[in-house]
Amino acid sequence: MTASAPVALALAAQLASALPGGDAWTRAEMGGVRGLTIGPIENGYHAGVGYGSPAFERSLQEAREMGATWIALTPFGRVGDLAARGIDPTFEAPFNRNRRDVARAIEMAHARGLHVMLVPHLWVESGEWRGMLAPGSDAAWAHWAESYGRFLDAWAEVAQASRAEMLSAGVELRSWVTTAHAPSFERIVQHVRGIYRGLLTYSANWDDVDDTVILGAIDVIGVNAFYPLADADGASEATLAAHGAAIRDRVHRLATTWGKPVLFTEIGYTTRPDPAVRPWEWPDSMAAVRVDERAQAAAYRALLGPELDEPDFAGFFVWRLYADPDDTSQEAPWGFSPRGKLAEIVLRDAFAAPWACDPWWSRSRGPRAATPGIYR
Questions:
Q1: Phi, psi (deg, nearest 5) at residue 158
Q2: Which of 20, 117, 121 is nearest to 69 (CA)?
Q3: Judging by beta carbons within 10 Å of its beta carbon (0-12, 13-18, 19+), is residue 322 exposed, middle or buried?
Q4: Residues 6+ apart with CB under 8 A from 163
Q5: What is the SS3 assignment for 168?
Q6: Which CATH number fits domain 5-370: 4.10.320.10, 1.10.10.10, 3.40.47.10, 3.20.20.80?
Q7: Which residues contact 247 (CB under 8 A, 6 or more apart)?
Q8: How far apart are CA 167 and CA 220, in angstroms?
Q9: What are the C-alpha distances in Å from 101 to residues 2, 69, 169, 184, 371?
């Protein structure tokens, strides 16, 4: 173990025993989440280089060297199509092996002094977006909720046993959590609290978080923050910065409405011209793309600059690195990874800076009553 490992493990134990609530994040006094998502190896033919492997250890070392204090891990379950008849928990390897590998990965992260958010994802085999799941009848929705509850419970057990500091109860489930079906999701969250005693979030999509009705059931408001920073190609850096400031205002309003901090559970920009126009576009769907590191770096700078001065902003996770840092088959050169690019310099600077949500920084600026939002 590294010298910082006992600190991480002590904090994990503190969070695991803390009672949740609207002020859970404030009471934890963890400071800003300086996070990187480390994705699994999405190919069953690449054995021995995923979560918990020596290759993953190198990714953890890179994360520490960049200045990250958190990592997010994203195990997947498979859904056939948007009819959502149920979840197959197997992803590229048998489910029980995946659970052991993820538990080992959390242990390895803690040994390096890193905190962990576990984010169970859904992989829709038809290629459609999980946010549009549509089981159909009330009976079909009930069947889906039962299946999803089993899936989440299984990963909550891993999070609790491994003392992961945070668990995301779902990712981009728009058709569920913004509709009349939302109460069944909230019941799942309440059930999970009987299994997992750390901090709970939910990763809403950026354009539906204001309509997500289950935010009262979680501790930290999560947003997959692929907000556009421009409306058309060729936007100036001043335009990108203005959009970044407007996003900061949205964060503050959201936090004030619910009395909870906002965490960007995913942020990311591809390495291409004008990535801030439609940042959610998937690299695999693009062809003949020119790699543009400057554009990627400029987008990160415009988004993060205003946010770090917002006391209600709890931090962010960059989307993403991979479990094997040497495997370039997982993503095209114009993909999201900032590794070895100009964007990595921007992120290193952001990680190293003091943030308004850091407890010591907030206290040094005067009484908490003098700052808005969660620090009252």
A1: -65, -45
A2: 117
A3: buried
A4: 9, 12, 13, 15, 16, 106, 110, 198
A5: strand
A6: 3.20.20.80
A7: 225, 227, 303, 306, 307
A8: 10
A9: 21, 21, 20, 30, 42
User: By 3-state DSSP, what share of the chain in percent is helix, strand and coil, each rounded to 5?
Assistant: 45, 15, 40
| Cβ contacts of 306 within 8 Å, gap of 6 or more | 241, 244, 245, 247, 248
* Burial of 316 from C-beta contacts in 10 A (0-12 / 13-18 / 19+): buried
> What pTM does this model have?
0.91
Give tens-digit pLDDT for 274-324.
Answer: 999 999 999 988 888 999 999 999 999 999 999 999 999 999 999 999 999
| C-alpha distance from residue 354 to each of 199, 204, 311 (Å) | 23, 27, 11
**CA distances from residue 117 to 34, 79, 203, 286 in whole angstroms, order as listed:** 12, 22, 11, 30
Strand partners, 201: 168, 220
Asked whether the beta carbons of 27 and 17 are under 8 A apart, the reply is: no
DSSP string computed for 249-264: HHHHHHHHHHTS-EEE
- The rounded distance, in Å, linking the Cα atoms of 173 and 129 is 9
Give every CB contact of residue 116 below 8 A, 6+ residues apart in sequence: 70, 71, 72, 73, 106, 109, 110, 162, 164, 165, 166
pLDDT tens track for 65-81: 999 999 999 999 999 99
Q: How far apart are CA 91 and CA 76, in angstroms?
A: 6
User: CA 322: distance to chain centroid?
Assistant: 14
Tally the C-alpha atoms within 13 A of residue 246's C-alpha that lie toward its C-beta: 10
Pair 261, 33: CB distance under 8 Å: no
Model pLDDT, residue 184: 98
| Contact between 88 and 133 (Cβ < 8 Å) | no
Contact 313, 307 (CB under 8 A): yes
The label of the residue with tokens 């569920």 reads: 176
Q: DSSP letter for 88, please.
A: B
CA distance 149 to 143: 10
